[in-house]
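Marked as duplicate of an earlier ticket. Keeping the data here for the record.
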Amino acid sequence: MGKILLVRHGQASLLSADYDQLSPLGAEQARLLGRWWAARGDAVHQVWSGSLNRQRDTALACFSEWPRPAPSLQIDEGFNEYSHHDVFASQGQAIADPAVLAETLQRSDNPRRLFQQLFSQAFDHWVRGQHTTPGALTWAGFRARCMAALRRVAADCGSGQTAVVVSSGGAIAAMCQELMGVPDTHVAELHYAVHNTSVTRLLCQGERITLSAFNALPHLEAPGVSPHLITYR
């Protein structure tokens, strides 16, 4: 059977007007993952990511540490994260504007905690389909899009091969929800548990895809690696 490694992107730039870029810490997380894989001598036959900068740059930073030519990065927008704008806008919140959100967070004594509070409420309503704007992306639609992309990779991942897919926390949660049959009421707990550059291992054989391991951080929990590199946001 084949193996698919889902990797969440490195830490992005939450307090910037442009969230979609790796922070210096996020780039280091990605490089450490590449070094860990390289030290193990693991073979990788395919490398995929969504089209978002933080996803693509995580893949490139990771495989910049590869001692031999890595497979060319392939882009599939099906692995893109949902937009925070879509989640907030579906609830009619002004902070759907990235500039307004950044300004709101910068005024806070604890911007990361404030973001989590604001986002958690809007995300819960979005997943449950409450107060969603007609025609807007739904959680069910987002999950279906992510699963379609995953099945495309699985169909091309032959027996004994390994494919790496760099995506985002929400997309990884959506795929794991589908594979494990997790109800919508428990999606948030699954989503918020996903660390930056964590590795979720899937096994695939034909159309069958199963979860083997979730949210592992071997490269960041290794001896000598600073605990501050383990982040959620």
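See parent ticket for discussion. The chain has eight helices and six strands.
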